[in-house]
TrEMBL record:
GO terms for molecular function: phosphatase activity. Keywords: Hydrolase. InterPro entries: HAD-like_hydrolase_phosphatase, HAD-like_sf, HAD_hydro_PyrdxlP_Pase-like, HAD_sf. Gene3D superfamilies: 3.90.1470.20, HAD superfamily/HAD-like. The keyword Hydrolase applies. This is Uncharacterized protein.
């Protein structure tokens, strides 16, 4: 029997936006950012891409949990002597954000639609990178449901998982399921990219393993949204999209937030229904 007891959260959640008509929830790495920030740190500051891939393979093969393997990757950054402040600065310099996210964010604000970031990464790093795009004030205010960090006096640091008892470290579905339980739930949009940002390196044989081992990361949340947007990256394998097609999960493919925004606007303005938006299929 599948255990459906929600994992205990060590970190607070922002209050549910129960009175809103729409809520936009989005993955961070590979969805709002154009490359995975934690992969970037591991590859450039930590033990490098070879060991990272080996860790991912172990996750996909079910030999290790995401929680444990991901921590080993991050710990390799710390072991190389990179302080928390340095990591923040490196990511602020090197992580590029989706060209349309700022427009999307401004539109949501103007329509009183909360934007909530749901991530397997660490909230303070996300805020740091985001401040570059939307400014310090907005980056401070935006709701982020992610993991946290413990920074020691000597500058060394360690990821602090939201759900230490879950193999995901952060079970993203817990951010969206409470909406479904409301008597009058807002319409939820969810934006995700892939099962994980780094599977693009893998052979097709491994991708097969991966699709069998789902739900994984975004999938756990994506299944529960009213309108699911799946990011398509030119030249990359788009696994979440392939998975959704196989599983018959209705979704809209989008290349960037400007494109998604056009469709979101039509839904928010009442010109089309969620069902009709899903039938469009591509933003
Ligand atoms: Mg992602």
């Amino acid at each position: 029997m599948i255990d459906t007891t929600p994992p205990v959260s060590t970190l607070p959640y922002p209050p549910l936006h129960a009175d809103k008509k729409f809520v936009a929830l989005s993955d961070w790495d590979g969805t709002i950012t154009n490359r995975d920030s934690n992969d970037y740190m591991t590859d450039n500051l930590g033990f490098g891409p070879e060991k990272r891939r080996a860790g991912n393979l172990a996750i996909l093969a079910g030999k290790e949990t995401f929680r444990d393997a991901f921590k080993v990757m991050l710990d390799s950054v710390v072991a190389n002597g990179h302080s928390w402040e340095e990591c923040k600065e490196v990511l602020k310099k090197n992580i590029i954000l989706d060209v349309g996210f700022r427009n999307f964010y401004d539109f949501c604000k103007s329509k009183d639609i909360p934007v909530v970031i749901i991530s397997s990464g660490m909230a303070p790093l996300i805020r740091a990178v985001l401040s570059k795009l939307i400014g310090d004030d907005e980056a401070e205010k935006i709701e982020i449901i992610a993991n946290d960090v413990e920074v020691r006096e000597d500058g060394s640091w360690e990821i602090k998982y939201r759900h230490p008892s879950s193999g995901f470290g952060h079970d993203k579905s817990q951010a969206i399921l409470p909406y479904r339980a409301l008597p009058n739930p807002p319409t939820t949009f969810f934006f995700g990219d892939g099962v994980s940002g780094n599977i693009f390196d893998y052979s097709s044989r491994v991708r097969t393993v991966l699709t069998l081992s789902l739900p994984f990361l975004d999938m756990s949340a994506a299944r529960h949204a009213d309108l699911l947007f799946v990011k398509q990256k030119p030249g990359a394998d788009n696994d979440l999209s392939a998975f959704c097609r196989r599983e018959g999960i209705p979704h809209v493919q989008f290349e960037d937030f400007n494109r998604a925004l056009d469709l979101v606007k039509r839904v928010v303005d009442g010109n089309i229904t969620v069902k009709e938006a899903l039938e469009v299929g591509t933003a």
